[in-house]
Amino acid sequence: MISATARKKIENVITRYPEEEKRSALLPALHIVQNDNQGHLTEEMMKEVADLLEITPLQVYEVATFYTMYNLKPIGKYHIQVCRTLPCALMGAEKLVAYLEEKLGIGLGETTSDRLFTLTEVECLASCGTAPMMQINQNYYENLNKSKVDQILEELKQKATS
Predict the structure, then answer these.
(1) Residue 68, pLDDT score
(2) Cα(124)–Cα(49) distance, rounded to whole angstroms?
(3) Which residues in the chain land under pLDDT 50?
(4) The model's pTM
(5) For residue 31, which of 16, 9, 48 has the smallest C-alpha distance?
(6) How much is the CA Rg of the chain, to the nearest whole Å?
């Protein structure tokens, strides 16, 4: 269920668009709901968003499943998204993913048992000149190698426990 706070934020976003184009608020509405629900969307929430925007639940679901920025199941505190498009692939993204899987003890799409890290691959993160790279929550980490990955993970673990 969408919280009253999230609902109010969505209603505010809807006012930015002409009444007949309220569906244009879909992306920000999904962000609001996801952020309000500890980083993921539920089917019930997507139906409520559809009602608010006067569109079908299927239209909401199509958008939520198309964009990798929306999560349809709970994720860890830190969502690691490794770019897998051509420049990153040529610069070792596949090896980076394998290293992260080994280091974290999880596969793609999985979350560590301490709920700290979720690992996924995504299409282009638009940082081709600094490949290989990954995004963790809202931050980019670029020109990665095993040493940098170790440092990043350690910093995030320390940050989570402090």
Answers:
(1) 86
(2) 27
(3) none
(4) 0.83
(5) 9
(6) 18
Q: 52-65 b/e with 16+ CB inside 10 Å = b?
A: bbeeeeeebbebbe
Quote the tokens at residue 88: 């990153």
From residue 131, alpha-carbon distances to 91, 100, 137, 141, 146 in Å are: 6, 16, 18, 9, 13
pLDDT at 162: 86
φ, ψ of residue 153 to 5 degrees: the values are -65, -40
Percent of the chain residues topping a pLDDT of 70? 100
Of 54, 62, 60, 63, the residue nearest 21 (C-alpha): 54
Which residue intervals of the chain are DSSP H helices? 4-14, 26-36, 43-53, 57-66, 86-90, 93-104, 146-161
Residue owning tokens 């860890």? 76
Give the dihedral of Cα atoms 141, 144, 145, 150; nearest 10 deg: 0
- AA identity, residue 153: L
Q: Which residues of 15-33 are buried (b: 16+ CB within 10 A; e: fewer)?
A: eeeeeeebbebbeebbbbb
